[in-house]
């Protein structure tokens, strides 16, 4: 009964039992999903992982395993840990920008309501600088090749 | 890197696998006997043969970082068998989104203060930003590329992966997983 096999059993060239644990999460219409998971974790490890979980959590687990496997296929050195580093760096960058902007607001708050024209142009400069900073940040940060985490 | 295969005790991998640790053992430089749990986790999640294959596909100078990232992922998966590292990614994505919204609001306030829309000494009205977000759009595009948001992945730049519960190994305030950079540590 070849036509009813899930992607895992098709790939492993085995009979797909009715209670195949992998079948709900690796449907035959998405073979690549199982290929990447099997390549990184191995079918046996995935089966063990899923067996240890209650049924209602297995779909999420299979999705996250697939995600991590894909990250590792695309980046064999860092996998999804590279993405974590990237996000941490982004958080740091945005926090720095936020602190700068809040400092600039504090400066403006302390100024009189109708500032001297010279002060207006100083504010214009501040704003331009702020915009320039954001534009500069549009260039994507390079992932470091050394100094893991 | 620790090399334990020549005179000293076998590496953590060969100890666990109960085999002789030969000179040139692929695991020995990265799994010293003093850190048995590192290999236990990696073996449990990935399997020794998969790790061997992964390392053999890399250049020697890349292997240490690869092993460390595998160990990191393995530990995350042991602690959180459902989400593993993906839980942390979702958490951090939400932090980025939250901070970006705060930054957008602050930029809007800055412009309104500058234009004297807000009298000095008074707080800005909440949610009244009319300034367009300055979010770098190509950064979201890079996210999409990295997270495979093409039907194969499940991350949305705006919605993020739903958080099922708090993470036992991240700090709620910053979610920083670096030992040196924040309070959360693995």
Overview of the molecule:
The complex is a heterodimer of chains A (149) and B (186). With 149 residues, chain A is an all-alpha fold. Chain A is built from six helices and no strands. Chain A has helices spanning 7-12, 31-40, 43-51, 55-74, 80-109, 117-137. In chain A, α2 (31-40) packs across α4, α3 runs antiparallel to α4 and α5 (80-109) packs antiparallel against α6. The longest helix of chain A is centred in the middle third of the chain and has 30 residues, at 80-109. Mean pLDDT of chain A is 84; it is low at 140-149. With 186 residues, chain B is an all-alpha fold. Chain B has six helices and no strands. In chain B, α2 packs across α4 (60-79).
Describe the SSE topology.
The complex is a heterodimer of chains A (about 150) and B (about 190).
Chain A: H1 7-12, H2 31-40, H3 43-51, H4 55-74, H5 80-109, H6 117-137
Helix pairs in contact in A: 2-4, 3-4, 5-6
Chain B: H1 12-17, H2 36-45, H3 48-56, H4 60-79, H5 85-114, H6 137-147
Helix pairs in contact in B: 2-4
List keywords for this structure.
heterodimer, A: 149 residues, mainly alpha, 6 helices, elongated, disordered C terminus, B: 186 residues, 0% strand
Which term fits the overall shape of chain B? elongated
End-to-end gap of chain B: 21 Å
Average pLDDT rating of chain B: 73
Rg of chain A is 26 Å
Secondary-structure-derived class of chain A: mainly alpha
Uncertain segments of chain B: 125-186
